Amino acid sequence: KEEVLRPRHVHVDFSQFIALHRACELERTVRGGGPFFAGAYAIQKPPLALLTIIDTLQKADIDINSLCEQVERTPAFSHFLMSTASQDNRLRLPVTHLKQAILTYGLERVGDMLIQFALMERLTQHTYPLLSIGKQFTHLSCAIASQLVALSDTKLTPQSASLLTTFVCAPLFTLPGLKVASQLPVSDSHYFQIHRTFKVKAQVPWHTVAGELAANWHQGATWRALIHNAGKRHHDVPNSLKKEHAIIQLAFGLAREALFPLPHPDEDSENTKSALLRTLSLSQADITLLLNRLSDYLFCPFPLTELN
Known about the structure:
Keywords: Kinase, Transferase
Order of helices and strands: HHHHHHHHHHHHHHHHH
GO molecular function: kinase activity
Number of strands: 0
Protein name: Histidine kinase
Largest sheet: none
Distance between the termini: 60 Å
Radius of gyration: 25 Å
Organism: Alteromonas australica
């Protein structure tokens, strides 16, 4: 019994401890791993690798093989293109070659896809309470914008409309007031006025934040002008941008209407919505069909207990 209750001899001399510590130095060295904390990347500028790819895509004569080599230097880009191409082809056949993925989408679309992918990766790199609903709102808005382009005669392509909408939604991930909020402060009115959709106090207007980000990410002058006009009422926008303005405003407003519906929308929002639809020669029936096609985006990101 005394042997069982006697404490074990578990201490070592300090000199012996130092000797053991030095003997295990090689085993303590981490090889091939990454840092314990994930790296943080600046949101206000695109990755240098992406700029190189965009410069290549803007050339008149593009060498596909050289472009593939540049994309492959960033594994996240090549994996994104191949996995997306595997899901988008009709037979759902796995795409294992980057060149095949690039040719599937075309050079112009690939550029917008990579910019949007890199932008969303940086906007969502940090976790905060409203990240999930912010991503859902952005994805739904982008999908609506792409669908509206397919129904309209406009300078935008579905992919460029989706990219522009991502920039317009970017303040959801950058404004300090939304980083600490536990609920998205949705306005009870002004569905189709981007800078008044959410009740956020900020020194810089919503569309200005989005426009500065688009400029830093090397977007063209026309797209920057469109984002700059996103804070204006539709009748104040130049005629040359009215259709594109209507698409962005409708995408933002319809996403807000679908995710945060009110039993009785205000009259001003309904009048603005009607004006936007007239600009695109669309009807409410078209919008109903559009939203039905996007029903997969209309899930609730919160546990049901948070809604009671």
